[in-house]
Amino acid sequence: xxxxxxxxxxxxxxxxxxxxxxxxxxxxxxxxxxxxxxxxxxxxxxxxxxxxxxxxxxxxxxxxxxxxxxxxxxxxxxxxxxxxxxxxxxxxxxxxxxxxxxxxxxxxxxxxxxxxxxxxxxxxxxxxxxxxxxxxxxxxxxxxxxxxxxxxxxxxxxxxxxxxxxxxxxxxxxxxxxxxxxxxxxxxxxxxxxxxxxxxxxxxxxxxxxxxxxxxxxxxxxxxxxxxxxxxxxxxxxxxxxxxxxxxxxxxxxxxxxxxxxxxxxxxxxxxxxxxxxxxxxxxxxxxxxxxxxxxxxxxxxxxxxxxxxxxxxxxxxxxxxxxxxxxxxxxxxxxxxxxxxxxxxxxxxxxxxxxxxxxxxxxxxxxxxxxxxxxxxxxxxxxxxxxxxxxxxxxxxxxxxxxxxxxxxxxxxxxxxxxxxxxxxxx
Length: 428
Hints:
Layout: H1 17-21, H2 24-33, E1 36-40, E2 46-50, H3 53-60, E3 65-66, H4 113-122, H5 127-146, E4 153-155, H6 156-161, H7 163-173, H8 180-192, H9 198-220, H10 227-236, H11 243-274, H12 276-287, H13 292-305, E5 314-316, E6 320-322, E7 325-327, E8 332-335, H14 337-340, H15 375-392, E9 397-398, E10 420-422
Parallel strand pairs: 2-8
Antiparallel strand pairs: 1-2, 3-5, 4-10, 5-8, 6-7, 9-10
Helix pairs in contact: 5-7, 5-15, 7-8, 7-11, 8-9, 9-11, 11-13, 11-15, 13-15
């Protein structure tokens, strides 16, 4: 009688191209054997990865974990776990944001500044305001599908999942229509270089910064009902919002508001194409006019293969214990949302896609005071995109082998580079 092979005692390789294609086996190993795991990131920064659901939820709401990158302290090799030096200080956050003077946004600050700035923009994302935006999202969705419906094939990332949230968030911010293609180009540069050299992202960030400064100046003379105009009004009415803060806020709403939704639509469509039973279930519900499955289905897609793999950076402001692991002051902490949302201790059969899953309190948009401000808009865009796509192109199918698809190997976000599909051409 042969003994079973023991579980590997060394951690799996992280942040390789193979890992990017399917990180879930590695995350399962970490949850089981090293749930709060010290590792070196591709940037050279050493950080803690938090992988279990209960620990992740605690960390996301823990005020001892600051969002301010200035709280990042280097550790000597004598202090560092396994004798490794936590070097590469400064390589945290979005490339180029520091040199472009865009640091004072919601992902980099703590209360009370975080409370003040979030209050200023939260009114733009209330359920009522998002509902008012629904016809525009529907119009954009149909327009994009019109452009390729007669061809019978398309890369859904490039021509659908990517442009939809770009144009939507530009409309909400108040970027004039004639300038939106420039934003699309800059955003495309950020996505293409998200897992590669930081220079391309930094150049795009600086271009956005210059443009936003000019746009804020122009809007002061012609305020509208858009979000940037609202930030200017708040500044002019004693809210103490500086021009740099206004530009940083507009930047992060754009930056955080498009790539998450690109990946939600892309990953979600791919998951449905790979799970025909669930896709047919959604077809039937939509044909019967029942949109409840669509709403719960988007939540399940966020849990199953969400757009944000790791929550953005946190830094311990004092010694903290998470999951039994001691974390030193200044240490970077990254909560692995993708691992937490497949934790079998929290979700039954977590590797199975179930569009009707109940009690689905996933962490796909975070938890606590930094919960994603734009989540209502992203949900609207995803629900509209998926419902319209599968209604208008009912036989849409993959036009490539899954193993041939490539995933962007970034740190925070996870999404497909391309999603080629084919379908019966449809007259507009």
